[in-house]
C-alpha cells in the first residue's frame, strides 16, 4: 500500500485507472466504480431489510429512510472513494447478518471482513470500523469454538480458521497503520475539526443531510436533527441493554447489538485518536458511514420489536420524514 496523501483513495484510484484504460477518459468511465457501488448499496440495503423484517411496507419505508439522503447519494456519482466504501460496507453488513445463522459461517465472515477491508482502502477513516468488526467476529468465533471443544474435528477446524483470520487481520492492520501514521506525521490528516465530536462530526453530518431544507431554518440542523438523533440513540441503547438482559439471541438482536457496538466504538476511537495523536475529528464526508449505520440501528432497534413497534415507528417517522420528504 503506497499512499502519499489522504486525497488519494487507494481502491478508487486503482478502479478508476482500470475503467480509464477500458473505456477512456470520459466522466462516466472515471465515475463508473462509484456508480456500481451505488447500485450495490441499494441492492444490499434491500436484501438486508428483507432478511430482517417480514413487513412489506416497513421494508419499503425503511429502504427510503436509509437511502434518501442527498448528501450521501452525491458520492455515488463522483470519482472519489466515499461512495465506493458505502457500497462495500452495506454488502459487508449483509453477509455478516447471513453468517449469524448459517452453518457455513466461515465463508460469510471472511467475505464480510474482506469487503470492509476494501471499504477501508476507499475511505481510510473506516479503519476503526474494520478493527471493531474484526474483534466482533473473532470474539464470536472464540465463543463458538469453546462451545464445541468436545467435538475435536470441529474444534480444530474452527481454531485453524480463526487463527488464519487473526493473521490476515493483523497483517492488514499493521501495513495499513504504517502508512496512516506516516501520513499523520506529515500533517496530511488536515481535513476535520478540533472543537469536539458533537459539534464537528454530528454537527457536520446534520448540516449537510439537512441542507436541502435549511434556507433560514438553521434550527433544524443545529437542534432538531442532532438532539432527536441523540435521544433515539439512547433509546436504542436501552433496547440493546434489554436484549442482553433477556439473553434473546437471534440474528436480529445480534445485528442490533453489533451496530450499537460499532457506533460507540467508532465514537470512542475518534475521540481517543484526537487526544492521543492530534488527529482531527471526522467531519461530513469522512464520517459519512455513520449515516447508514445509525439509520440501520434505529430502524432495527425501534421498529422491529413487537412490544413497542408503534411507538418506535412513530419516533422513526418524526426523525426521518422531514429529511426524506425534501431531498
Structure write-up:
Helices cover 77% and strands 0% of the residues. With 327 residues, the protein is mainly alpha-helical. Helix 7 crosses helix 11. It is globular and about 55 Å long.
Helices and strands in order, then pairings?
Elements: H1 10-23, H2 27-52, H3 56-67, H4 70-73, H5 81-99, H6 105-122, H7 127-147, H8 152-185, H9 197-214, H10 218-246, H11 251-277, H12 290-303, H13 309-325
Helix pairs in contact: 1-2, 2-3, 2-5, 3-12, 5-6, 6-7, 7-8, 7-11, 9-10, 10-11, 10-12, 11-12, 12-13
Supply database-style keywords:
single chain, mainly alpha
Number of strands: 0
- Helical stretch tally: 13
Structural class: mainly alpha
Share of helix, binned: over 70%
Shape, principal axes of CA atoms: globular
Q: Main sheet, how many strands, which sense, barrel?
A: none
Rounded to the nearest angstrom, the radius of gyration is: 20 Å
Strand content: under 5%
The mean pLDDT is: 84
Order of helices and strands: HHHHHHHHHHHHH
Measured between the Cα atoms of the first and last residue, the distance is: 38 Å
A few lines on this structure:
This protein is mainly alpha-helical. Helices cover 77% and strands 0% of the residues.
Amino acid at each position: 500500500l503506497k499512499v502519499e496523501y489522504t486525497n488519494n483513495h487507494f481502491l478508487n484510484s486503482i478502479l478508476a485507472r482500470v475503467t480509464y484504460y477500458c473505456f477512456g477518459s470520459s466522466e462516466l468511465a472515471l465515475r463508473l466504480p462509484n456508480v456500481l457501488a451505488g447500485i450495490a448499496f441499494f441492492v444490499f440495503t434491500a436484501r438486508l431489510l428483507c432478511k430482517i423484517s417480514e413487513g412489506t411496507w416497513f421494508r419499503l419505508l425503511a429502504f427510503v429512510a436509509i437511502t434518501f439522503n442527498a448528501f450521501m447519494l452525491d458520492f455515488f456519482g463522483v470519482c472519489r472513494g466515499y461512495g465506493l466504501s458505502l457500497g462495500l460496507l452495506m454488502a459487508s453488513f449483509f453477509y455478516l447478518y447471513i453468517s449469524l445463522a448459517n452453518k457455513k459461517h466461515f465463508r460469510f465472515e471472511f467475505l464480510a471482513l474482506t469487503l470492509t477491508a476494501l471499504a477501508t482502502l476507499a475511505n481510510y477513516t473506516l479503519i476503526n470500523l474494520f478493527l471493531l468488526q474484526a474483534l466482533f467476529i473473532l470474539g464470536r468465533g472464540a465463543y463458538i469454538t469453546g462451545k464445541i471443544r468436545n467435538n475435536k474435528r470441529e474444534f480444530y477446524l474452527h481454531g485453524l480458521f480463526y487463527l488464519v483470520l487473526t493473521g490476515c487481520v493483523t497483517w492488514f492492520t499493521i501495513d495499513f497503520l504504517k502508512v496512516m501514521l506516516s501520513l499523520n506525521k506529515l500533517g496530511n490528516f488536515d481535513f476535520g475539526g478540533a472543537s469536539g465530536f458533537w459539534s464537528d462530526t454530528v454537527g457536520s453530518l446534520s448540516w449537510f443531510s439537512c441542507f436541502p431544507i435549511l434556507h433560514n431554518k438553521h434550527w433544524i440542523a443545529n437542534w432538531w436533527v442532532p438532539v432527536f438523533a441523540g435521544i433515539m440513540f439512547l433509546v436504542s441503547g436501552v433496547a440493546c441493554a434489554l436484549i442482553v438482559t433477556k439473553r434473546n439471541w437471534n440474528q436480529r438482536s445480534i445485528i442490533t447489538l453489533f451496530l450499537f457496538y460499532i457506533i460507540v466504538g467508532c465514537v470512542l476511537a475518534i475521540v481517543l485518536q484526537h487526544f492521543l495523536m492530534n488527529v482531527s475529528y471526522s467531519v461530513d464526508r469522512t464520517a459519512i458511514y455513520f449515516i447508514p449505520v445509525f439509520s440501520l440501528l434505529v430502524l432495527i432497534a425501534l421498529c422491529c420489536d413487537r412490544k413497542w413497534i408503534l411507538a418506535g415507528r412513530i419516533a422513526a417517522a418524526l426523525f426521518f420524514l422531514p429529511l426524506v420528504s425534501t431531498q
